[in-house]
Task: structure prediction
Amino acid sequence: MDPVECNGHSHDHGDHGDDLGLSLRPQMDLDRVVCLNEEVANSGRAILKLHEERLTTTPALQSPEDDPELLLTIPFTEAVTCQSICIRSGSENSETAPPRIVKLFCDRENMDFETARELEPAMKLELLPPDHMPDAGTIDYPLRPAGRFQNISSMTIFVETNYDDSGEAGSEITYVGVKGKGTKMRRAAVDCVYESQAMPKDHQTPSGEYGSTDVIKDSH
Result:
């Protein structure tokens, strides 16, 4: 399979919608959101904030110290087409670090960390470093190839690494936003089995890279 390419990103300075779609928060099934390896229960759900709250730094989602991995699954109440994603870390907490390498999966509501490490994602991207993040806005990353994100019922976000080179800091996210469009088509409930508790063996340093999808880097 050919590598996925990303030609750029969009800075969102406040408009609720643009060429990368409208906020899909109204279509998120918040009661069914699951996040593995979160330090505080339900904090993964809490960072799916309203668009106008995207610059707030609390609540925040954090992984444990020495462990960058997070696995956030967002089900939708109807089939949606996702066009862009924003993953922001606006905290100045010196003990945590913003995500760096992120994998995105579609319609995989039964994922655990082992599967996320080994399975080829719909898209793999490298988020811009903290010193590039705008103070007064957010960065939207286009989701490509677009066909992989059409008429989906859930999206899973796997934070693989963060910007802490020492490997001692957990990952921190203060906002996740997805833009696109809904279809008004209700989807049948998906039978799934979740990992009920993060297991210590699942949070060792991942052994090597998997899959053939290249890391997506933004040229600015």
User: Anything to note?
Assistant: The radius of gyration is 16 Å. The helical segments are 43-46, 113-118. Residues 86 and 140 are 5 Å apart (CA to CA).
